[in-house]
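Dear colleague,

Following up on yesterday's call, I've attached the two folding results inline so they're easy to grep. Please treat them as preliminary; we haven't cross-checked anything against experimental data yet. The first protein's sequence and structure tokens come first.
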Amino acid sequence: MRDVNKPLRKAYYAALSAITYGGDSVPVYYSELPAATHPDNYIIFRPVSNTDESTKQSADTSTSMQVTVFTKKDLNNAGNACDDICGSVLSAIMPTPGYNITVEDFQVIHTRLTSDLTQEVSMSAQLKYIDRIMVFTHLIYHK
């Protein structure tokens, strides 16, 4: 069995880095927001989680990736940026039924959105924060 984590992270970064909002690129980070970085809208995809799903005939994993969209705006933040960016994330990871992200040296057999949760709105000073967490699960065949 081979490790799928790095190739999957590279595939997610490539897919998510193409996302724009309001004509600007939405920054994408792996695991955490870099220090001294404070964008209004950004995406963080978190560490990969794997479960072995191998059979006698194949080496497979059920692999999950959490993608979180973070937005902040003045007190009039209605969540439009968060929903629009999340729509772009969905289009990047699974634009149509049966589509699977391309992962170098692996074959993604199936992709599902297993969770989609908008966090409670939080406020600080004159800013309103709206975040949304999506979890994608892939059945991945190890070629």
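Below is the second protein, in the same order (sequence, then structure):
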Amino acid sequence: MLKDATIYGPNGAYLWCAIGVLTLIASLVIANAGYGEKAALLFEAYRQFQRISVDADFASRTLRLRGSRQRTFERLNSEYQLLLDRTPNHSPVDFARAMTWRLDREDAAKPERPSYRYVSLVELAKWRALIALDIGINCIPIVLAMGSAALLVPTLAWMIGG
């Protein structure tokens, strides 16, 4: 644009300014989301859940005295409940993606699965809109990168063509 100010049309400078601002916003959102920290917390919680599970399994196989078993399982249950309270929770979008959403019809045979939810048309639309919004927000950095790369084509053509 230094040599040919119209290479991207009369509003090329505004276009690149908008792309720059949107890229900055996307970068700040991603940087402040703390994905690394959240992943570390969830991994630690997962490992603690595993330890409690292994301890419960071991206790069920080895402890024979009723009082000893009772105290051990009460302790493990307390640890489990505390861990549940400290574990980061999933977002509504995580829940929406994990479920299989079906329109509630009285005459339809409904499978007995915890991952199925039968909802009204309005609620089905709400959950699907939430998922679509999440996908759209997560695609912004990719779309910006692809758009920026596509806008470099005139520059490359200018450089090659002279």
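For the second protein, one point worth flagging: The beta strands are 100-103, 116-119.

Best wishes,
A.L.
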